[in-house]
Amino acid sequence: MIAYLDGRLAQKDPTFVIIDVGGVGYELRISLNTYGQLPEGERCRLYTHLHIKEDAHTLYGFATPAEKSAFLHLISISGVGPNTGLMILSSLTVQEVQQAIVREDVRTIQQVKGIGAKTAQRIILELRDKFRKGLGADSVNVSFGAAHNTSREEALSALVTLGFAKNVAEKTLDNIIKREGAGLTVEEMIKFALKSS
């Protein structure tokens, strides 16, 4: 229905953004990878997916068409809803998801919070042929930009939104900062936390 939104980035949070398009603010749920690629307060374009349930209409936004495509493939699988799809794309880059599926690497997919062995196997079984066809040699090794904000509070807020208990998230972040140092970006803190849960 809405292919993309192009406008000014009015608000940016690790789990959602508000884009001002002609004076109307659209709230979009985003992955951590998209968060890391968005410029603060500047004009941006996000590719969108409108998810409709009985009790909610939710817009999801993606920095690239490849991320949107990966999300749509993931949520087409029984047992993988939009929040789980975002969780996967927050823990792994699109390229890491593709590589894990093509190489049938159950362990990498299972590292994502909330993904069990059966769901990981189902994702691989249902998507490996689609991803094998769509992958050229170059499309696997693309890197992504990192976020520039190092606030522990933003990371904590994002983890709570993603389903962590606040006290658990706080302990996890404190351990990560002790272990990795205080110079981590919000994105890096959240990724470490997602992998350690």
What does this structure look like?
There is one protein chain. Residues 136-150 have low confidence and may be disordered. The chain has a five-stranded mixed beta barrel. With 197 residues, it is an alpha+beta fold. The radius of gyration is 16 Å and the shape is globular. The protein is built from nine helices and five strands. Helix content is 48%, strand content 20%. Helix 2 packs across helix 3 (82-91) and helix 7 (152-161) crosses helix 8 (166-180).
Helix content: 40-55%
Main β-sheet, spatial strand arrangement: 1-2-3-5-4
Oligomer: single chain
- State the end-to-end distance: 36 Å
Which structural class do you get from the secondary structure elements?
Answer: alpha+beta
Largest sheet: 5 strands, mixed, barrel
- Molecular shape: globular
Radius of gyration: 16 Å
Residue ranges: pLDDT <50 for 5 or more in a row? 136-150
Beta strands, count: 5
Output the helix-strand order.
EEEHEEHHHHHHHH
Q: How many helices in DSSP terms?
A: 9
Beta-strand portion reads 15-25%
Mean pLDDT level: 84
Write the layout of secondary structure elements.
Blueprint: E1 4-12, E2 16-21, E3 24-30, H1 32-37, E4 43-53, E5 56-62, H2 65-75, H3 82-91, H4 94-102, H5 106-110, H6 117-134, H7 152-161, H8 166-180, H9 186-196
Parallel strand pairs: 3-5
Antiparallel strand pairs: 1-2, 1-4, 2-3, 4-5
Helix pairs in contact: 2-3, 4-6, 7-8, 7-9, 8-9
